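ok, trying the design again with the full structure, not the truncated one.
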């Protein structure tokens, strides 16, 4: 009895702590839309139809169920409508030759033909397969753990934002939000990285609130504030000099851009009456591209040029003019991606040097700290 009592006292805080934390939440990820037909395969499938009439049925054994979405085409909707859900006691379903862990919902959305397919997946399984897509499953565990925490933060914010919205999902499986994979993208290492950081997100040190965090492939020497790249102020962002990524990925990129094109963008965005344009010497880490117009020194955000010229032509936001002729300017830059937040190749290098995930994150997000929310 005494032993039992002592054990209870010893373990009570842990018992209490784990009992008070909610388990991994379920994330609704839209993986496809405008589908005419949806075939889902699995074992002992339970199909619930909510529309046009409610019915429920279990299909014993391994079966493929077909859903025809054209019958909803004349539906007039204010928001969206959940039409069916499909699950299996095995928690594994196949769609489009890929295996998914979790359940599926089928919905119809306003102004969208056909069905939207929504994968309902535990946030931790979502993170395990995301690491293979948004980072690289063979990278060192500490870089994967840093990525897991950053991606989980993003997903939890989207989940809370869209919890009570009209949308039948929290986020998209796309570059617009985050790209995740399916069951076979998960590896021992990605599962370990998700498990060892389970429930961990980044919050602001000053008020313990969640605040958006971003990441991109390679900052190229300096990370950027969201407001300098997208124009909207995001609390808790920092721009840091990154000495870690330069030996990874492509060293430099070059691109030739016509001066007429630059002039057209400036006229459209900042100076409608622009006529002639002359460029003074530029430097790589400047956020702005300077130019003389009618003898006056003016500037346009380099990120604005990138937005208008496209991510293929302007690979990153760290670039400068290295040559000018009558018709063109030649830009040279370093990095890959928008450069806001975590630099993934920087995280790779830090992890290779033995730096832990927590320190990697505090380097790129100095105003945040890790908090376990479940
Ligand atoms: Zn970097």
């Amino acid at each position: 009895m005494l032993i039992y009592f002592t054990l209870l006292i010893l373990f009570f805080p842990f018992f209490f702590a784990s009992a008070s934390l909610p388990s991994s939440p379920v994330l609704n990820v839209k993986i496809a839309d405008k589908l005419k037909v949806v075939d889902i395969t699995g074992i002992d499938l339970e199909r619930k139809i909510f529309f046009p009439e409610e019915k429920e049925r279990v299909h014993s054994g391994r079966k493929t169920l077909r859903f025809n979405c054209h019958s909803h085409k004349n539906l007039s909707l204010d928001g969206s409508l959940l039409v069916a859900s499909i699950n299996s006691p095995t928690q594994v379903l196949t769609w489009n030759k890929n295996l998914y862990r979790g359940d599926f919902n089928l919905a119809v959305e306003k102004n969208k033909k056909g069905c939207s397919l929504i994968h309902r997946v535990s946030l931790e399984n979502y993170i395990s397969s995301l690491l293979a897509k948004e980072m690289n499953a063979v990278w060192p565990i500490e870089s994967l753990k840093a990525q897991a925490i950053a991606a989980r933060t993003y997903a939890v914010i989207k989940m809370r934002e869209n919890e009570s919205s009209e949308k039948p999902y929290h986020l998209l499986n796309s570059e617009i939000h985050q790209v995740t994979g399916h069951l076979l993208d998960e590896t021992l290492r990605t599962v370990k990285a998700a498990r060892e950081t389970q429930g961990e997100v980044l919050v602001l040190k000053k008020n313990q609130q969640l605040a958006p965090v971003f990441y991109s492939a390679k900052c190229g020497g300096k990370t950027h504030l969201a407001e300098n790249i997208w124009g909207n102020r995001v609390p808790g962002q920092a721009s840091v000099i990154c000495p870690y990524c330069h030996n990874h990925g492509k060293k430099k990129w070059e691109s030739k851009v016509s001066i007429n094109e630059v002039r057209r963008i400036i006229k459209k965005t900042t100076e409608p009456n622009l006529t002639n344009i002359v460029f003074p010497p530029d430097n790589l880490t400047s956020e702005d591209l300077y130019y003389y117009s009618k003898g006056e020194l003016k500037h346009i955000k380099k990120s604005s040029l990138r937005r208008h010229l496209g991510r293929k032509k302007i690979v990153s936001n760290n670039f400068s003019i290295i040559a000018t002729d009558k018709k063109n300017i030649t830009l040279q830059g370093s990095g890959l991606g928008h450069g806001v937040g975590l630099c993934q190749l920087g995280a790779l290098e830090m992890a290779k040097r033995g730096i832990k995930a927590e320190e990697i994150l505090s380097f790129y997000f100095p105003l945040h700290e890790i908090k376990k929310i479940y």
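Keeping the full-length input from now on. Residues 146 and 159 are 20 Å apart (CA to CA).
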